[in-house]
Amino acid sequence: MVIERSQIMGYCNGVAHVIELAQECLRLARERSLPAYSIGWFIHNPTVVERFVQAGMQHIDTPQDGPPGIALIRAHGIGDPLRQQFEQSGFTLVDGTCGTVAYSQRMIRNGDPRTHVVVIGLKGHSEVAALSNVWNDSKQLVPVLVVETREDVDRLPGFGYSTVLLMAQTTFPQLHYEELKSMMQEKYGSRLKMGNRLCPTTFRRHEAIAHLCTKVDAVIVIGGRMSANTTSLVHLVEEKGLPVWHIESVREIPREIFTYQRVGVTAGTSTPPEDIDAVIAALESGA
User: Fold this and answer.
1) Number of domains composing the chain
2) Cα end-to-end distance, the chain, whole Å
3) Residue 283's Cα: distance from chain center in Å?
4) What pLDDT band is residue 93 in, cutting at 50, 70 and 90?
5) 34 Cβ partners below 8 Å, 6+ apart?
6) Residue 45 and residue 41: Cα distance in Å, rounded?
7) Is 167:117 a contact under the CB 8 Å cutoff?
8) Are 228 and 198 in contact (CB under 8 A)?
9) Which class for 57: exposed (0-12), middle (13-18), buried (19 or more C-beta within 10 A)?
């Protein structure tokens, strides 16, 4: 078997940064004899999360889920009302919000109040929740509509003669984003104002997986099943018509993969390098 590695895979800068902050959160908690928390999954990879759980970090969603302590804000960010609830409840927050997401929140926060905000994203995704719960200067929620499908765009109101600000979940699949954006441009014309953009790291990974697919017979994608960016890599391979397996660890390598001569390996932005190395070593050994 010949193994081809994607040119770009593993931690992005935002994930590497939030993992460093998770370690800082644990350090501060030990130093102050306080509980250590993560507000939601700080990244969507069970291997990494479990490592921090074993070190003493607890998963909470609201301030009512535990006594005040040191709480890490996930890379996808949290909404302004939830942030205030934690602060007023006596928690010390360590902000792991990805810089790209924080920029998107500021853009929504500082926008013209007469503008209507639409977010292209996965409904229920934690980043979309963070973008949908932003306060303006008067501490009022900026109204946000979320579109995930063509039908969602069709159902959007016309908004009269108002400007429409188009934002995006930064890890939304590139091809699907372009399709929905084109529909929005056709619907609103010159009234549509482009806001943020997809994460450039995600875009480069999509280009790398497209190139990888030209050289292999099948692909393994490594990463958490809750990870939107990892799942989008799987969909891209499927669109190329190649067999693809989405696995979280070396234990899930399918036996069928050893029937292919050339196998590609890629991984999501929250996949630790040791998980990638373990999968590649197992493929090379035929185990």
Assistant:
1) 3
2) 12
3) 28
4) very high
5) 28, 68, 69, 70, 92
6) 8
7) yes
8) no
9) buried
Please give the backbone phi and psi of residue 60, each rounded to the nearest 5 degrees, phi first: -135, 160
Question: Using CA atoms, how far apart are residues 261 and 158, in angstroms rounded to an integer?
Answer: 53
What is the pTM assigned to this prediction? 0.83
Q: What is the CATH number of the domain that holds 32?
A: 3.40.50.11270
Whole domain around residue 131: which residue ranges?
Answer: 101-194
Final residue belonging to a domain, choices 194, 219, 244: 194
For residues 23 and 142, give the distance between their C-alpha atoms in angstroms, rounded to a whole number: 33
Q: How much is the pLDDT for 174? A: 80
Which tens digits make up the pLDDT trace of 17-36? 989 999 999 999 999 999 99
| Side-chain half-sphere CA neighbours of 265 within 13 A | 25
Radius of gyration of the chain (CA): 21
Per-residue pLDDT tens for 145-157?
999 999 999 999 9
Q: What's the mean per-residue pLDDT of the chain?
A: 93
